[in-house]
Design brief:
The radius of gyration is 29 Å and the shape is globular. The chain is built from 29 helices and 16 strands. The strands form 4 sheets. The chain has a 6-stranded parallel sheet, sandwiched between helices. α9 crosses α11 and α20 runs antiparallel to α21. The N and C termini lie far apart (68 Å). By secondary structure, the protein is of the alpha/beta class. The longest helix is centred in the N-terminal third of the chain and has 29 residues.
Amino acid sequence: MSRSETHLDPGIPALGRDSLAEAIANFRACLRPGQQELADWLEGPLAVSAVPGSGKSYGMAVAAAIAIARNQPNRSRQLVVVTFTRSAAASIKTKIRENLRQLGLPQGGFAVHTLHGLALQIATRHPQLSGLRLETATLVTPQQSHRLIRTCVDQWLGKHPQLYQQLLEGQQFDGEETERLRRQSVLRTEVLPNLAQTIVREAKSSGLSPQDLYPFEQVGDGFSILAIAAGLYEHYQQLLKARGWIDYDEMVLAALRVLENSTACRLWQDQIYAVFEDEAQDSSPLQTKLLKKLAADSTEAELHHLVRVGDPNQAINSTFTPADPIFFRQFCQDCQALDRLAVMDQAGRSSQVIIDAANFLMTWANQLSRADKTKATTLPFRTQTIHPVHPVSLRAPQPEVNPKPEGQGLEVYTPHDVYHTVELIAERTVALFEQNPQAEAAVLVRENKQGRFVAEVLRNPDQYSLKADLGDKGIHIYEVGEQERRSQVPAEILALLQFLDRPHSPDNLKAALGVLIERQLIPKQDLNAFVGQPEQFLYPGPLDPPLSAPVRQAANLCCQLLRARLELPHYQLIPFLALALQYDQAELATADKLATRVTQQAVGNHSMGGTLPVLAEIVSSEKFEPVEVDAATNRYVRPGQLTIITMHKAKGLDWDYVFLPFLHEDTIPGSLWVPTSAKFLGEFTLAEVARAQIRASLHQQGPLPDIAAAWQQAGDLKTAEEFRLLYVAMTRAKRLLWMSAAQQGPYRWGGFNWQRRDSLQTKKPCPFLQPLKAKFPHSKVPCQAYSS
C-alpha cells in the first residue's frame, strides 16, 4: 500500500467511518506540502527535512493524531512520540490531544517521552536484563559529575606516570621547578578534566567503550591522546559502577541491553506500532540505535516504522553535545534512495527578503567550506532552499503568512563602536514601536555577557548618553538571562508532603494551607484562627463548634490529600499533588521532572523518610530548573517588549523585528581557543583533538587524523556550526532583520568591563556581511542617519 494513500480501517467506530474520514481529510487539507506527506505515512521509515518556520511541530502533531485514528481498532499498540526536551514533550502532547478531541476520538493511544525518559522506563521494567535498579542507583548530578571527573583524573595520574610525564614535558621543557609545578596544576585542573568530560560524553553516546578506543592509540600524534582519553574513560566507568551511579548515556545503554534480549525486545515492539521523533538532527548514534530497535517490525526485522523529523541546518549543539548533523543527513539520504524523504520547504514566518538572505547564507557558506564538496554531509548546510508559502498551499486561512517587510526588511549597519551599536538599536526600536505598538522585537546575542551589556546600556540612557529612552516610551526590556527565576513547584510540593507526613503539626498545616490559598483552591482566610488546633480542624467532633463554609472547604480538601497519602503508592504522590494543585502544562512537566529527580536521588529509600530530605535539599539549593513549554516561553515574545536573548535560546521562537549586533569575525565564526596556560602542549587542545578523532572514526573517513588534521577538522566543525547558528538567528525575524558589526569592540567579551569603560579595539566584521551587502545593496544603512 502506498504511504500516500488515505487509509482508514473498517473497524473504526468513533465518528463512523465516513465522518471520521471526512474529518481526517479536512485536517490534511490544511497542511502544506511536506506536512501532507507526513500525515499520509502508513508504515516503514520516513525522513522529513524541514526548513525554519515550516510548521514541523504542527505537522507532526496532526500526523500523529491521524496515525492514532487509523490505529483505533488495534488499541493494544501505541504510537510513541520522542522529543528532545521535557518542554517539547509537554507541548506536543497537548497538541495531539487537542487534535484527537477535534476528531472526536479518545485522547489516548499514544505516549510522549523524552528519549532519556523512554530509555529509563525500558531499563527499569527489566532490571535483570538492564543491570539498572532505581532503588540502588543514583543519577549523577552536574556537581557529582565534576567531582567524579576530578577523582578519575587523580587515579589515572597515579597509574600512568609515563604518559603524565610526556604531557608534563610538552613541546619543550627546561626542567625549571616553578614551571613544572605550574604545568602540573594546569594538567590536573584544566586539561585532563576537560579531556575526560569530552571523551566520556562523545564516546559513550556513540556506543564506544574504553576498550574500543585503545586500538586507536597509535596515531603518531606524539601524545597518544586517545590512549590517555581511554584510560580516563575507563576510570570514570569504574567509579560509576563502584558508587552505584548512572549518567544519562547509561540509561540508553541499559535500555539497549534490554532490547538485546529477543523476548524483551519482542514485548516492547508488540506494544509499539511506530515511533515519531522530533528534532532528529540533535540525536546521537546511541539514541538513534535505541529508536530503531523499538520501531523495528516484530515480524520483519529489516522494516522500521520510524518517522524522523528535523532540520539539519538548525543543528547548533554539536560543538558542546554529542549531537552531529551528519547522522540525520545520512538518514535523509537513505530514505531518499527509498523514495521516503519528505521536505517541508515552504515557510510562512518571514518576509521574502529575509528568506532570500537566509538562503544566500546557506549557499555562500557551502561555497566557502574547505570540506570535500563531493560529500554533501561534510558541508555546513544541507542544500535545502526556503520557499515562501505558495497561495495554492493555503487551504485554510492563516494570518500573516510571509508578512510584508518593514521598510526594506533587511538593514546592515557599521556602528562606530559597541556603545553606538546599542544607541542605534534604541533609536530604531523606538521608531518601530511608535509605528506599531503591538509589535514584538528581540536582540539576539552570541554570548550572555553581550546581552547583559545591551540591557544595562538601554536601561541607563543618561549614563551612556543615549537619546532614546525605551522606558520613557513604555517599551519593556526583558533580558532572559537575568529574568530566569526558579520554579515554586519544588517548594509547594515539599510543603504538602511535609503536611502529609505530620498533619498535626501547626506549622506544616499552615504552610500547606498557604499553598492552597496561593493556588486559589480554597478561599483566602485567617489561618491563625484554626491552625493551632489541627485535630479539631481536620476531624471535628460532635461537641466542637461548627466550621464556617471557607474553613470546611479547606478541611475537606486537606482530608482528601490525607486519604490519598494512605491509598496511593508513595512514588505516585508527587504527580497526584501536582494534579490536585491544578498545575498548568509547564508546571506538570516540572513536577514530573521533580519526581524523577527525587526517585533517583533517594538511593533505595523510597518512602516519606527518604523523599523529604532529598526534596528539602533540592529546594534549599535553589538550583532546580523548571521545565519550560511553549506557553511558558510567551514571556519571551510579548507585544511592546524588547527581549534580549542568546541565539541558542532563541531557537523555536520568532519576532516581528530581530536585531543581530556584534557580528564580528572573532565571534562568528570565531576560532578554537587554546588557553595560554596550556600552550606548552602545542597550539591545540587535547579535548578537541580527541573529539575530532572519535567523530572521524564514526564517520568512517579513512585513517584516523593526526593532531594537526584533527585540530583542523575541529575548527571546521566549529565554523560550520557558527554559520548554522547565524542562520537560525536570521530566520527568527518576520518583518525586519537588523544586523551590525561595530568598528570597535572589546578584545574578549568575557573580560569586558563596560562600567570601567575598558578600552576597545578595532574589530573585523563577520566575513558574511560584506557579500551580504553586495548581494542586497539596499540593506546597507549609513550610521550617520542615527548617529549622535
